[in-house]
Fold each of these.
Amino acid sequence: MKEIKINDSSSFHIHLLSKVIDMDHYPFTKLIIENHITFEEYEELMGLLHKLNDTFEEQKEEGLMDFTLLLIHFAGMLNEKLNPNHTIYGLKKEGYFPSLMDTFIDIINRNESKYKRR
């Protein structure tokens, strides 16, 4: 069994909760915890996502069809502790910004299949 060092009661409580909750149902939350994202970093990420989602909705209304630049902006602005793809899939699974995450996932899948064919 893996030994876990727990140095304060908050960490201990989170450790206990993670044992009783199936964290696979909460992949975004799991990423936040595992990557030691602070409250400020979390707030910054959510602010970024709200702005991106607003831009996405505006561009969609204007008829824009390619949102690759938004995905690139997201990946570039994302906290370095987080992997862009894992974050996107985690956000999607937990229901955050569903249209935006669906669009990002479509772009990721298109690019992955494009490179697989080569």
Amino acid sequence: MLFTSDLVASYAPDVKRLRRFEKIFLKSGESKKVNFSISAKDLTFTNNENQKVVEPGDFQVTIGNLRANFALK
């Protein structure tokens, strides 16, 4: 599961939003590589005026216990 968080926004959307997931089946001891892609559209939220917007700023992506921050300009 891939979650995004908008760290600074004019309107506070959900703290953590599910953006992608892939259901996989693993045997005991098996590992598998899963790739996710996101776009600026995936970072939109609904503002106070019921409009879908994406704002530049700092974001965080979380997959399992891994986290990475990035800036959208």
Amino acid sequence: MNVKIFGIPNCGSVKKAKTFFEQNKIDYDFHDYKKLGVSQQNLEKWCKEFGWEKVLNKKGLTWRNLDEIIKIEVKDAASAIKLMKDNTSTIKRPVVESAKGNIIGFNEEEYEQLFI
């Protein structure tokens, strides 16, 4: 099974996802979007699949530290995608894509159901 994890390496949820796959002997590729960026196409696909409100991480420190004017301007998928493309730390992590399905965030029970 080809699994791709999108995220940043020092994120706790990303670390949990990597550990889950390693413990279950599932190979994965890791895409560090802090270093490599994230494509407009991926952001559009994730927003369509999960909803932009779920892809945009409003609970994180990065969002909380943004200027209020920037936050107010995020009203729809297009404005959320622009912000996430410019500031990848506002993307909920990890985003995992696989032939079995895609998932966002880390929930061990959901991972077990999908991948084991």
Amino acid sequence: MKTLKTVLGLTAALAVTLSSAAAFAAGYPERTITMVVPFAAGGPTDTVARLVAESMSKDLGQQIVVENVGGAGGTLGAGRVAAAEPDGYTVLLHHIGMATSATLYRKLAYDTLNAFEYVGLVTDVPMTIVARKDLEPTDLKGLIDYMKANKDTVTVANAGIGAASHLCGMLLMSAIDTPLVTVPYKGTGPAMTDLLGGQVDIMCDQTTNTTKQIQGGTIKAYAVTSPARLDVLPDVPTAVEGGLADFQVGIWHGIYAPKGTPSEAVERLSKSLQVALKDENVVARFAELGTAPSPEADATPAALKAKLEGEIARWKPVIEAAGQFAD
């Protein structure tokens, strides 16, 4: 009889759990969702987040509010989400820095691979190698020669340790085997402002931040880091065309939730992301910025988890060889 009571109790508990899960799934979301972007407002990752959040809000029937929590190469914002209540109402949109910070930072407030639930990949943004408009070299080969000959004076701007521009700049210096003078800023905006003003020489940044300036002729473009030329910048050669063999890098973005977020919420968010990435407005705006939405098969938890694991392994030796770490 005691065994029977135990079985009946477990059955009843399971029924309550299943009923609660079904009720949660049916009602979620019931209020505003916060999407944390771990970088300053107006930057390239913020632009991606706001486009996706707007479309997902329509599908979910609840607003997604973007909150910018910048600092420490994106780790402050990521840490905020890792420590948030796992109820489906706080998510993180982060880029490749989610993977590189695992090596860049000796101490993190969270375990990169195990502190989050995975929602899906959003987009993979190409990078551009750009310079102040009056820099002397006319093509990438000339720029490489110029950087090597003037390595003690050429300045390379970035948006801070862990930012996409920092990572690309580090990879560029590794590719040409030449250390350059790096100038870190507190965000992409001020870095671009000084590049436009001629206070710094070079930057390697996302098309979402450079396309309009390239098209307007206010900065000089030397290469894109995609496998092929971009429709939005047809006259800009690839880095490989310009002489940098195998220099291909994209700044992929993904959405995460705190560990322990109900699977029903994660699944609903993933489905909503897939809807958003097919939204005509999102597709069109991404195209204008030189990128494209991730395919549906990549806008899934499994795809994002696999991407993060692979990218941590890929960047670890690059960062260790450069010796650029942060506490």
